[in-house]
Design goal:
Length: 184
């Protein structure tokens, strides 16, 4: 596996800034499991099964059914053609789904406005007046590189993630992006 050399470093593949300290997922999700397995929480959620952060038996069933590691990027042009806006985002400290690779595939995506998207600037995206990300957007397609965040952007940058989702769902992503000053 290509990930093995990185795993041997002991670093977290989901956040290169920190070590991998809790098994394959690198994070301690015990508090979430404790909360979600409380009888009163399960009652409110309408469930009766024990929560587990990553069920490898379920993962195996998905893989055996052929529903694992599928490439869905080819469906994005159809979404855009139907007027459905698309946002791809990645934390800049994520190794396993790195921002640079994600940005590159968005720029290679075969769709009618590819050239316009490729030519679009990477604008500063501000939250509370502070630059927190870079945003490229054109014709309903957006890519955001979130600063100081790993794989779990909402955990690492909750204010940015919340603003990003609010802006995306209300169609106002560009309002928090400042066009970089052009040098003439």
């Amino acid at each position: 596996m290509a990930i093995l050399p990185y795993k041997f470093t002991g670093k977290n593949p989901y956040d290169m800034r920190i070590p991998c300290e809790h098994g394959n997922l690198c994070y301690d999700f015990d508090a979430i499991g404790t909360y979600l397995n409380q009888p009163e929480v399960q009652k409110e959620l309408g469930v009766s099964k024990k929560w587990g952060s990553c069920n490898y038996a379920v993962n195996l069933l998905f893989a055996q059914a052929g529903d694992w590691m599928k490439n869905y990027q080819g469906l994005i042009p159809d979404l855009l053609a139907d007027g459905i806006k698309v946002l791809i985002y990645a934390g800049d400290c994520d190794y396993i789904c790195n921002w640079l690779g994600n940005m590159k595939w968005t720029q290679k995506l075969d769709w009618p406005h590819r050239e316009e998207f490729v030519a679009a600037p990477n604008n500063d995206y501000k939250v509370n007046g502070e630059v927190m990300a870079k945003l490229r957007t054109s014709n309903g397609f957006s890519f955001m590189q979130v600063f100081n965040a790993g794989h779990m952007v909402p955990m690492d940058q909750p204010a940015v993630a919340l603003q990003m989702v609010k802006d995306f769902t209300t169609g106002s992503l560009a309002e928090h992006a400042a066009v970089e000053d052009l040098l003439v």
